[in-house]
Specification:
By secondary structure, the chain is of the alpha/beta class. Helix content is 46%, strand content 18%. The strands form three sheets. The chain has a six-stranded mixed β-sheet with strand order 5-6-7-8-12-11. A five-stranded mixed β-sheet has the order 1-13-2-3-4. The chain has a two-stranded antiparallel ribbon with strand order 9-10. The mean pLDDT is 88.
Length: 394
């Protein structure tokens, strides 16, 4: 219910802001009756979609929920794209007007206007919002693409020979419900089989519909990796109902580690696998939280050759690097859902949040996955993924 209310507020806010920007920056377009009608229609259609979304939830009908959510998101993305482009279009209109005014003053007897220049400027002004809308629509379409399952080697100094080539299928942020289904999970697990993973780790936000969680855990266990599967919590487990989540895990073959860990033997080497809780809150780094939970998790670690930490949030790297964690696997960020060349486009703004990809502090490594799913269906240059992490001796 909170999500629905938030979406209502956002659709209304962006709808009003869209009309304000249109009227403020591109008055000529606002004077066009049809454009005004479309502007009024955007938030109205968005609210109708949200009403259908709510009705679908009441009737437990995916036939209503699925198209209503997609169309509501399309309206929201369209509003945002237009808001961002109107100032640029308005600037081009202003440049054209300024050129015309200057030319008229300089040539009072010759009021001819450079039609080619005017055509280029005005066509460009009109094209920018259209390009932006196309890009936004493309981002929504890409969110429904197949999950990218791939091998990701990460090198470590002094890695024991027994762990050289050890492969870990990393699943995170499945958000099983409307956009990612059990069929999608089955496809990912089938794709992962060809990489012969030795272990599966799941770093939180598994199911937004908790009725799907038991089947998901059973499917993950049936991948039948030599060293089993392990999971840690994300913030959505707390949001959806931590008691129900724990109950499902207690009755599943996949152990849930909450500030806890175990040591397993690989050949003659020992690998410690730990998982920490999630702070639930959003915003600034929870440094004290990570210090407390990681210390508690390491209480049962004694003399292992390699330490692996499951943390829903990549912020754990800061403290993990101080206490000898070799590898942290995380998710949560979805890579900002927009990326370029394997990094989040928000990387420069938040360099210490480790948004997507591999990172290191001293000898401690981190891989932040962009996740298998999302609760907001939009992906641009940042595909959904399920990496198979391969430990490599450097």
């Amino acid at each position: 219910m909170k999500i629905l209310f938030s979406v209502i507020l956002v659709v209304l806010f962006f709808g009003l802001l869209h009309m304000l920007f249109l009227r403020l920056f591109v008055k000529k377009w606002w004077q066009n009756k049809r454009i005004r009608q479309i502007s009024y229609a955007l938030p109205i259609v968005g609210l109708l979609c949200i009403a259908l979304w709510k009705l679908g939830m009441m009737l437990d009908s995916n036939l209503l929920i699925y198209p209503a959510v997609v169309l509501a998101i399309l309206i929201l993305v369209s509003e945002l794209c237009l808001i961002l482009t109107y100032p640029i279009s308005g600037l081009l209109h202003l440049i054209n007007f300024s050129f015309d005014s200057i030319k008229k003053k300089a040539n009072k007897d010759d009021t001819k206007i450079d039609l080619n220049r005017r055509k280029v400027l005005l066509n460009t002004a009109a094209a920018i919002p259209l390009i932006s809308l196309s890009t936004g629509s493309f981002g929504i379409i890409k969110s429904y693409s197949s999950v990218n399952v791939f091998r990701k080697p990460i090198a470590f100094e002094n890695l024991p020979d027994d762990l050289n080539g050890f492969r870990i299928l990393h699943l995170s942020d499945l958000h099983l419900r409307h956009y990612v289904t059990l069929d999608d999970l089955e496809e990912v697990l089938r794709d992962a089989e060809k990489f012969f993973p030795d272990m599966v780790v799941v770093t939180g936000d598994i199911a937004d519909d908790l009725d799907l969680l038991p089947d998901a855990l059973n499917m993950i266990d049936q991948l039948n990796t030599p060293n089993g599967a392990f999971a840690s919590l994300g913030n959505h487990e707390h949001y959806r109902g931590i008691r129900t989540v724990r109950h499902h895990f207690d009755n599943s073959p996949v152990p849930l580690f909450v500030n806890h860990g175990e040591t397993i033997k690989i050949g003659d080497s020992l690998i410690f696998i730990g998982g920490i809780d999630d702070p639930k809150r959003m915003g600034a780094k929870e440094n004290k939280f990570f210090q407390h939970t990681i210390d508690e998790t390491l209480n049962k670690e004694h003399g292992s050759d390699f330490k692996l930490l499951m943390s829903h949030r990549p912020d754990a790297l800061d403290y993990a690097s101080q206490v000898g964690i070799d590898l942290t696997l995380a998710g949560h960020t979805h890579g900002g859902q927009m990326g370029y060349n394997g990094r989040s486009v928000l990387e420069s703004e938040f360099p210490d949040r480790y948004l997507w990809g591999d990172y290191s502090i001293d000898k401690s490594k981190l891989y932040t996955t962009s996740g298998m799913g999302h609760w907001f269906p939009f992906r641009l240059g940042c595909p959904t993924e399920a990496p198979v992490i391969e430990l490599v001796k450097s």
